[in-house]
Automatic annotation (TrEMBL):
Annotated source species: Daejeonella rubra
Matches recorded under SUPFAM superfamilies: S-adenosyl-L-methionine-dependent methyltransferases (SSF53335)
GO biological-process terms attached to the record: methylation
Pfam families reported for this sequence: Methyltransf_11
Sample GO molecular function, one term: S-adenosylmethionine-dependent methyltransferase activity
Record flagged with keyword Transferase: yes
Keywords, in A-Z order: Methyltransferase, Transferase
Transmembrane segments: none
Methyltransferase type domain location: 53-101
Superkingdom of the source species: Bacteria
Entry protein name: Methyltransferase domain-containing protein
Keyword DNA damage set for record: no
Family matches, as InterPro entries: Methyltransf_11, SAM-dependent_MTases_sf
Amino acid sequence: MKIRNPSSRFDLSIKDNYKVLEVGGGHNPHPKANVVVDKFVDSNYHRSGDIKVLKHQQFLNADGEELPFEDRSFDYVICAQVLEHVNDPVRFIKEQTRVASAGYMETPSMIGEFLIPKESHKWVLQEIDNKIVMYEKEQIDFRPVMDFGYVFQEFLPKNSIGFKIMQQNHSDLTLLKYEWKDDIEVLVNPDSSYYKDFFTKPWDEEACNRFLVKRTLSGEGMSSFSAFIDICRSVFKSKVLKK
């Protein structure tokens, strides 16, 4: 079942003594992971760079749909930016819940996929009623007009503090972030207009209120100020402390 929507992949319920698996660490493995698996070691088609493994991590070449571990071998499993690529999402998710009792799933949201479409992404996803709902792109005739990936992943993060504040405050705009325990509720290509309409029809005010964070003016101000402090702290660490 769903536990919560973390603010980021670093805001996770992982205790220091947990044994942590990451499925699909790719070029950006999570530092909390003890073991990292990846299916494709000779191709970067599904990721943005070469596989990276941190000093404390064990790496295994393995398929997320058939993990080489006993049941409940781990306390927690992390899977970020992978589910949208897989062939059999039901089998993939069952393997996650088999090898660990809790974990974190992150994918592009539907809006994220429209803004930053990837050829390697087979699925479009959105959280609806605490469930991960996913459609194969062909099922919903997914046709993004333009790819604005460079704008939202490179240019604005490097050149606009205002955008970085918005990105931190409203990461749910482009990301699905789902922390779970025991199992993951997922619907694959549901043949229901209740779900499909969110993927195929324009969003109105009701849909925005349902899927996006809506705060009071004071709440938004406090959140923006907190995000600004976090960004300043991060810049200080990266540009000053590392010198």
